[in-house]
Amino acid sequence: MSGSLDDNRDYFDGVGQQIQEIISERDWSQVTFVAKSVGTMILGAIGARLSVPGSVNALWLTPTFPLDYVRDGAVATGWRSLIVSGSADHWYHAARTTEVVEALGADHLLIDGAEHNLEIAGDVGATLGALEQLATATLSFVK
């Protein structure tokens, strides 16, 4: 999958239709989306077009915010959000992430030294600590 919206539009639209069908199956009072990496590309591309009843939360894990359509799409949703980034992730861009955090009033967890897979290279203990940070932030966010 390329990072281009135009190259992936049919795929994103198809996934969006599937998500909309699931959402339409019942009258939800709250929906929480969890998107990781490519999932953030999809959610950024289709999120604002989804018809979702009730309140919506989004957990953006290692988001691809350097891509304009992902960043702009995330902001366009207006959803309550938790953004989780690793400082060593090749997709992490501090200024572009800050744009989204500020626009949404989102919570942001930046895991020091974590790569795109949220591992800290060569340090199992630090990786486990990062996963604990992720779990704590997620539990706090969904409560």
In summary, what is this structure?
The protein is α/β, with parallel strands linked by helices and 143 residues long. The chain has a single domain, classed as Rossmann fold (3-Layer(aba) Sandwich).
Would you write up a description of this structure?
By secondary structure, the protein is of the alpha/beta class. It has one domain: Alpha/Beta hydrolase fold, catalytic domain (Rossmann fold). It contains five helices and four strands. Strands 1-2-3-4 form a four-stranded parallel β-sheet, with helices on both faces. α1 packs across α2, α2 (38-46) packs across α3 (68-77) and α3 packs parallel to α4 (94-104). It is globular. The chain starts with a helix and ends with a helix. The relative contact order is 0.13. The mean pLDDT is 95.
Which SSEs are present, and which pair or pack?
Layout: H1 5-24, E1 30-36, H2 38-46, E2 55-61, H3 68-77, E3 80-86, H4 94-104, E4 107-111, H5 124-142
Parallel strand pairs: 1-2, 2-3, 3-4
Helix pairs in contact: 1-2, 2-3, 3-4
Helix-strand topology string: HEHEHEHEH
The first-level CATH class is given as Alpha Beta
Beta-strand fraction estimate: 15-25%
Largest sheet: 4 strands, parallel
Radius of gyration: 15 Å
Keywords summarizing the entry:
143 residues, alpha/beta, Rossmann fold, globular, 4 strands, 18% strand, 5 helices, 4-stranded parallel β-sheet
